[in-house]
Design brief:
heterotrimer; A mainly alpha (632); B mainly alpha (102); C mainly alpha (489); B: 102 residues; mainly alpha; C: 489 residues; two-stranded antiparallel sheet; 19 helices; 2 strands; 3% strand
């Protein structure tokens, strides 16, 4: 079995680049970086085909026993099933394209070799995460990608702002990770194992028995575990309340934003919840919490994206918002819909980020969209691919991948067993916001007059990945088409062996048509509104800016979460650190020392150096002792 | 006053001892202090002899011989010290030798 | 017999090195290195010959002062074996890192270094409590000289503080040992200081409790646990690099070892009764130490406070009374020895380059010394418990084992992981990232420094990915200890 090659190849590449990094030429480093990724992608393809043709039996491969303490023996064991395959495919394939793109994007950077070392390390860890057979190994990948995210956000280390963003990302996600770890302790106490298969089997048997009551930890235990896992997922996937790190994470090089902060790492939370779906099914409360988090996040992030002026921050908020959709789907029990949205999102969001990177590089590191404009003619390839990506993000009906995946979530929000009208309305409003902010970005960037001259045009290494990703952004949706439009279920039936499909409370065709029509109308309305304000009639915007300035600032700041956390957590902590730098408990001991010095001073007073005083003391002492010995 | 021999002797020894002690405490001249110490030693010797006479034992007198020998040694050391003090401080005032004060 | 040699080689090596330094300083360094290396090879030989030790691998029992039942009794089980391996491993690095740093009276320095190591070796080996106390003192006095003679500016204060704290707490232990001796004699009529005799002695609960506190106080001052940690930042901060390495890597471990070897097996019931307080002290240590580490600007003090935080996990685990937690504690002793030792070594290397320990004055060093930065990154990540490195295994096992014992405290201890992240990343940012406030004449790692760092990095990754070898080695001893809990005697 050669499954291990998939994560081993990127790790090997990283190892070579780290050990020999300074001695390799850029070309060599590029070949090693891309080559190991390409081979890994190839091997994923081979393994995937073998998996598909071989009866789709999950594969378990124990590499070695990690440790064995008191009967607990988690192995370094890989597990490969259809869910892992989807993630592995996206990670290696999109990862490979981004590696290729990076050889162009980073070509003139002095940290080229270091960049590829980190990038390979990231891919290896991400693959460990999705291929892990037990939660402890998953946690290894989970933290490993966190480390690489930290290293890559702070890649240009000389700017302290990048370092701050990197640390913020690491620390905020670590808060989630700690909740996750506590969840693992609880799971271990309940079941005595962290093996995913064993946990799901236990949850499955509880579910087919009398529900959460037959779970060893009781319903409350199941809910607590589920919520703690959600805590981890929320941190990694930048959902409310731990979303604040992602917009700042844009400080990293753009390929990093594309790979880590759009396509793969931030969806690890989605993977975790989907993977542990059995526990969530035991606890309806936690499902509701997940869908609520998703809904709030998609709206909040959508509003924030509307008011950003930094191209990458628009995309960052949009990523948060789209992952909100995935969380909503997870909360609805529409597991495969969430994974499907992850699948399409990986392509079009990676495409958008890479396109944004091409724009930013062409404009000499200009990121403000209001200082761009008229790029339609200057950068035609980037324009067309970016437009395709945007259309897919905005879910332009019928022709884009984003439409099919988002439509599925909307329909589940309406008709799924956990759905409700409220969730559907919120999700639809989100769809409208998505279209609006996406095309605001497109129109401001590509239409209008040129404000910054193009100094440099992207080379082939950058445009070819864009074109490939654009194709996927258009076509990837057709593997799963709603049943009123053609009924293709390649994707969900592929995942059916891992993820149960939700029950619908209504299967009315009319309602489905209505829902799709409403979503399509909202999307087109959003695009139209953006066109009205940003292309046809820009003056009218000035008035609106005046009237809603405060609201815009509020949206721009991401609903003030940063300020809230700053005054609630960071300020008190740094204050506490500052006032108690010298350690207050030390005063206990210095106090003791000072007391004995004082005592010594006092008794030293009696030591006058005059012989007769000592004699007097001796005489009085003798007298006292005599008196005592005589009278007592 | 018609006290038995022992009480009289002990009283005398006591008075001598206290006299010696007081003069050690009062005098600042180290030479006189040394002499006062001698008086105290002799008072103690007297007490031994009186006690020895009371019990008809030679021990008291043996102790007195010890004290004599010890006193001789002590005087020689003491005088040497006084010479040193005079040498260092140009005085034999004991209060001047207070360099060891805390 | 090999056990005596382990101690004798160090003692003789120290003397020889001192003598040799009168003629040739380099010879003195080589003698010191050789002595520790021989010990390392000997211990590794025992290990390879017996990778999964069951019970006592080697034992030596000679009469020393038969009148008082004092024996020269050494014995080695899996736990001691691991501790000895760590001792000699770090000992070699300690000699290596002083190669250029110590030029003032190098012979006497190596004498002291080797005698500290001898004391530590003795502590890990003795099974006679009188002898144990003897070695406990042996490791104290040379350490006092190491800090007091070769330390930084405030070294005298630090040396005194270290001495008074450990000596005062050691006296409590001496009292407890002597009372235990007499209580045992009263009950059984046997006058003996032997560990195995004490194990068999039944004690009334109240007495056992008082005696336990005597031992406990010596060990938790050495560990150090929360309210007794104050000597540590001063001693670590002011000691020379090798001194900090030995202090953090080994001396602290004698406290942890004492808790595992003596407090829990000798006094299981009172230890159980004390457990919630012990765990609380551990948690406070984790959080408070982490907070103080975050506040420090002096790199060595900062690392010293991280030790307080990490040793909190030992406290938590020891008083959780589960096998998982004990194994986690053993792992924590080893991985913390390696990772914090490495951080002190790196701090020493930085000091050689920048001549300051103030991290606010450093910055941007990645540009000039990327290899140094990479090494620092590895150990900073180890310190915040990144999976794949040894510390993660230790902390995860400890926390996972402590969870059934006390959920609230374990959850709070887990928050320590976030705090560790905060202070660890601050080190990287302040030292290696950001703009360079002034151009350092800093060079990257030299071959000797590579020789120091590579084994450490290899060890910490090996412990993170393949901890099973280590766990197997101590497994039997740890299971024995964990079976001792409450009432099983």
């Amino acid at each position: 079995m050669t499954l291990w090659l998939i994560p081993a190849l990127p790790y090997l590449g990283a190892l070579i680049l780290i050990l020999a990094g300074s001695k390799l030429s850029k070309q060599m480093a590029g070949i090693i970086g891309c080559g190991s990724m390409g081979l890994s992608a190839l091997w994923t393809g081979v393994t995937g085909i073998a998996f598909l043709s071989g009866g789709r039996e999950p594969v378990r491969l124990q590499l070695w026993e990690w440790f064995d303490v008191a009967g607990w023996n988690p192995g370094v064991t890989l597990y490969f099933d259809s869910l892992s395959l989807v993630f592995t495919f996206v990670i290696t394939f999109v990862g490979f394209l981004i590696h290729v793109y990076s050889t162009g994007y980073m070509a003139r950077d002095e940290g080229f070799n270091r960049f590829f070392a980190y990038l390979n390390l990231f891919v290896g860890s991400m693959l460990m995460l999705v291929l892990a057979d037990n939660l402890l190994l998953l946690y290894l990948g989970w933290e490993g990608v966190g480390l690489c995210s930290y290293l890559l956000i702070g890649f240009w280390y000389q700017d302290p702002a990048n370092g701050a963003a990197a640390r913020k990302a690491f620390i905020v996600t670590r808060i989630g990770d700690t909740a996750f770890a506590i969840g693992l302790f609880m799971l271990f106490q309940t079941l005595g194992t962290l093996n995913i298969g064993a946990i799901l089997a236990e949850a499955g048997s509880a579910l087919s028995g009398d529900g959460a009551a037959s779970w060893p930890g009781g319903p409350a235990g199941a809910t607590a575990i589920a919520l703690l896992l959600v805590g981890g997922a929320v941190g990694k996937s930048a959902q409310i309340p731990l979303q604040t790190w992602l917009p700042d994470a844009m400080a990293g090089p753009t390929p990093v934003s594309a790979l880590i902060h759009a396509a793969t790492m931030v969806t690890a939370g989605v993977y975790l919840i989907a993977r542990m779906h059995g526990i969530f099914e035991l606890s309806p409360v936690s499902m509701q919490v997940v869908s609520l988090i998703g809904t709030i996040t998609l709206l909040v992030a959508g509003c924030s994206a509307l008011c950003q002026s930094d191209l990458k921050r628009v995309l960052a908020y949009s990523t948060i918002s789209q992952i909100g959709y995935m969380f909503l789907a997870l909360g609805l029990g529409a597991w495969s819909a969430a994974i499907f949205h992850f699948f399409t999102h990986a392509f079009f969001k990676a495409l958008l980020f890479l396109g944004a990177g091409a724009i930013i590089e062409s404009l000499h590191h200009e990121q403000n969209i209001f200082r761009m404009g008229g790029l339609r003619k200057e950068l035609p390839v980037v324009f067309i691919t970016f437009l395709i990506g945007s259309a897919s993000l905005a879910a332009l009906p019928l022709v884009t991948a984003g439409f099919f995946s988002k439509d599925q979530i909307l329909w589940m929000a309406f008709a799924g067993e956990h759905g409700s009208l409220g969730l559907w309305i919120a999700a639809s409003v989100g769809a409208f916001l998505t279209a609006l902010y996406t095309f605001r970005m497109v129109f401001v960037t590509f239409w209008g007059e040129t404000k910054t001259p193009v100094t440099h045009r992207p080379g082939k290494a950058m445009t070819i990945p864009l074109i490939i990703l654009a194709l996927f952004s258009l076509l990837a949706g057709f593997i799963e088409v709603p049943h009123n439009l053609g009924h293709i279920t390649l994707f969900s039936s592929f995942l059916a062996s891992v993820l149960p499909s939700p029950e619908l409370i209504t299967d009315s065709l009319l309602m489905e048509w209505m829902s799709q029509a409403a979503a399509a109308l909202l999307t087109l309305g959003g695009i139209g509104l953006a066109y009205e304000y940003y292309v046809r009639n820009p003056q009218s915007l000035a008035g609106m800016k005046r009237n809603t300035g405060a609201l815009q600032r509020f949206f721009h700041s991401g609903f003030g979460f940063d300020r809230l956390y700053d005054s609630l957590l960071i300020q008190p902590y740094t204050w506490l650190a500052r006032v108690n730098r010298r350690d207050i408990t030390d005063s206990l001991y210095t106090g003791l020392a000072r007391f004995s010095i004082w005592l010594h001073r006092q008794s030293a007073q009696t030591q006058t150096g005059i012989l007769r005083h000592y004699l007097l003391g001796a005489a009085i002492g003798a007298l006292i002792i005599l008196t005592i010995s005589i009278f007592i | 006053m018609n006290l038995p021999a022992m009480e009289t002797g002990l009283l005398l020894a006591g008075i001598l001892f206290i006299l010696g002690l007081l003069s050690v405490l009062i005098r600042r001249n180290t030479l006189f202090m040394l002499m006062s110490v001698e008086i105290m030693l002799n008072a103690a010797g007297l007490a031994f002899i009186v006690a020895g006479a009371r019990w008809g034992q030679p021990d008291g007198q043996v102790m007195f011989l010890f004290i004599l020998a010890m006193a001789a040694a002590e005087v020689s050391v003491g005088l040497a010290l006084i010479l040193q003090i005079h040498h260092q401080l140009n005085t034999i005032d004991s209060d001047a030798a207070n360099r060891m004060k805390g | 017999m090999i056990l005596v040699w382990l101690i004798l080689i160090l003692l003789l090596g120290g003397l020889l090195s001192w003598l040799a330094s009168r003629w040739n300083v380099l010879l003195a360094r080589w003698i010191a290195l050789g002595a520790v290396a021989v010990n390392f090879v000997l211990t590794a030989g025992i290990w390879f010959g017996n990778p999964v030790p069951v019970g006592w691998v080697a034992e030596l029992d000679l009469e020393w002062i038969p009148r008082f039942g004092i024996h020269f009794h050494l014995a080695l089980d899996g736990l001691s074996l691991l501790m000895l391996l760590l001792t000699f491993f770090l000992g070699m690095l300690g000699v290596l890192c002083s190669w250029k740093e110590i030029s003032y009276r190098p012979g006497f320095f190596h004498f002291n270094l080797l005698w500290v190591l001898a004391g530590i070796t003795g502590v890990f080996l003795t099974m006679d409590l009188f002898l144990f106390y003897f070695f406990w003192e042996v490791m104290l006095i040379p350490m006092y000289f190491l800090i007091g003679i070769w330390g930084h500016a405030n070294r005298i204060y630090a040396a005194f503080k270290f001495f008074i704290f450990t000596q005062a707490s050691g006296l409590f232990m001496l009292l407890a040992i002597l009372s235990l001796y007499y209580v045992q004699a009263q009950q059984t009529g046997v006058y003996s200081f032997d560990y195995f005799d004490f194990l068999e002695t039944p004690l009334p609960f109240k007495t056992a409790q008082w005696l336990m506190f005597g031992f406990l106080i010596a060990f938790i001052v050495k560990l150090p646990a929360f309210p007794f940690h104050n000597w540590l930042p001063d001693a670590h901060g002011e000691a020379p690099t090798a001194g900090s390495l030995v202090l953090a890597g080994l001396l602290l471990k004698t406290g942890a070892y004492g808790l595992l070897r003596f407090v829990v097996p000798l006094f299981p019931e009172p230890a159980m009764a004390f457990a919630p307080w012990g765990m609380l002290m551990g948690v406070i240590g984790i959080l408070y130490g982490g907070k103080l580490a975050f506040a420090q600007n002096d790199l060595k003090r900062l690392i010293a406070y991280t030790s307080v935080s990490h040793m909190g996990f030992v406290m938590l685990g020891v008083f959780a009374f589960t096998e998982l937690a004990y194994q986690g504690v053993v792992m924590q002793m080893i991985t913390h020895g390696i990772s914090t030792g490495a951080l002190f070594l790196l701090a020493g290397m930085l000091y050689e380059r920048t001549h300051t320990r103030d991290i606010t004055r450093m910055g941007g060093l990645w540009k000039s010394s990327p290899a140094l930065g990479a090494a620092m990154m590895v150990f900073v990540m180890a310190s915040l418990g990144l999976p794949g490195l040894g510390n993660f295994i230790a902390e995860f096992l400890t926390l996972n084992g402590s969870w059934p014992a006390n959920r609230l405290l374990t959850a709070l201890a887990a928050v320590g992981l976030v705090i560790a992240t905060v202070y660890s990343l601050r080190i990287m940012q302040k030292v290696f990232f950001g703009p360079m406030p002034q151009t350092w004449p800093a060079a990257d790692l030299k071959p000797r420094e590579y020789l120091i760092m590579i084994p450490l990095i290899a060890a910490i990754i090996w412990l993170g990915l393949f901890p099973q070898k280590t766990i197997e080695t101590s497994g039997h001893a740890v299971t024995e200890i964990s079976l001792k809990k409450g009432g099983s005697r």
